[in-house]
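Lab intake sheet, docking and co-folding queue.

SAMPLE TYPE: protein with bound small molecule
LIGAND NAME: pyridoxal-5'-phosphate
LIGAND FORMAT: SMILES
REQUESTED OUTPUT: full 3D complex as structure tokens
PRIORITY: normal
SUBMITTED BY: R.K., bench team

The fields below were copied directly from the construct record.
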Amino acid sequence: MAFNGANLKKLDKKVFLSTATMHGEEMKYIQEAYDTNWMTTVGKNIDEVEKIVCDKLGCKYAVGLSAGTAALHMAVKLAGIELYGQNAVGHGSLEGRQVFCSDMTFDATVNPIVYEGGTPVFIDTEYDTWNMDPEALRKAFEIYPDVKLVMLVHLYGTPAKIDEIKAVCEQYGALLIEDAAESCGASYKGVQTGTFGTHSVISFNGNKIITGSSGGMLLTDSLEAANKVRKWSTQARENAPWYQHEEIGYNYRMSNVIAGVVRGQLPYLEEHIAQKKAIYMRYKEGLKGLPVKMNPYDEANSEPNFWLSCIIVDKEAMCKQVRSDNEVLYKQEAGKSCPTEILEAISSVNAEGRPIWKPMHMQPIYRLNGFVTKYGNGRAMTNAYIEGEAQDIGADIFARGLCLPSDNKMTAKEQELVIAAIRACFE
Ligand SMILES: *Cc1c(COP(=O)(O)O)cnc(C)c1O
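RESULT FIELD (auto-filled):
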């Protein structure tokens, strides 16, 4: 037998991957912005949110911006100027430079490197946390000794191997930017993600663990860096009675209305994490006995925020699945399954899952960029396995993994139906 959804119970109300969870206080602060007429990119909500984030995460400065992507752009620009100096035009600070970057991630991590004229070189993933492999990073510095900047992501809210990554960066004198867009509230050895980079970034996008509908922040311990970003993000106005400009500017500041939403949300960060963790643990328990594993984390040293629960199908239990650039085929097989079939099963009970982020080295737009695995130049690899392990770990996790419905508001009962649908795939 193989999957047959005929007798599965459907959810009355669709359960999404991850949506905003509102509490009421958000309205109070939106109303406050309205009543005081601070319907702009300045105001008390922004000031408060910047303060609260510094207190909660333990950084010195936080700058509210229009999106996590805008914050990443500012972080990359800061690092480019710190490393290579400011050129005459004031943008393209990474022109002609290569930057090491997590490979299995959302493209918002990577694009800002290109905005500044840089060329990302992708570093393969490790199986222990699904983040940048420190061994592959070390290999990359051997192949590209001139690189001075590393962009690290904590995928799905799971902290990367920060000590190892930082040690490699220090050995080669490289700066680290942390994309903590998905990991707000997650910690490593008791320290919050978003505080390990020279500059770091969090996001308040609509599906993140704390949201403003949109928005993001740059986190830094450098007053000079924070001030620069405040200036650049408000069109780089000089201190003069008129609009005086000596540098390229951006319109990247956070809205005071959106900051009101974030201000109402932030007190619930711990509660949201507890809900997400409960979801992860229920999946872990409910899927016991199936040939699948949850997205892993370092249980001794890290506490994820459990933003998304994911699974990976054991190699031996994969049915045949092939993907082109925009289509997928699979062949049903008794006792086996694959992400495509499981996603269809989840969708058939009225819930939403998603494939793993497709690795950047596999994306057509980045097909010419470098890619380094722990074995060396990933672009020069054959498809052979070394010691029974895939050489291209990102491609392997993409092939066998998927994100499960992880909405805070999903009840245990609803989750049971999702689990039943996944179980049915392995019949
Ligand atoms: C969401 C996300 C971003 C971008 O954040 P926005 O606020 O949507 O611009 C960047 N990196 C990762 C890994 C993300 O998941």
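REVIEWER NOTE: Residues 299 and 413 are 27 Å apart (CA to CA).
SIGN-OFF: pending second check by T.M.
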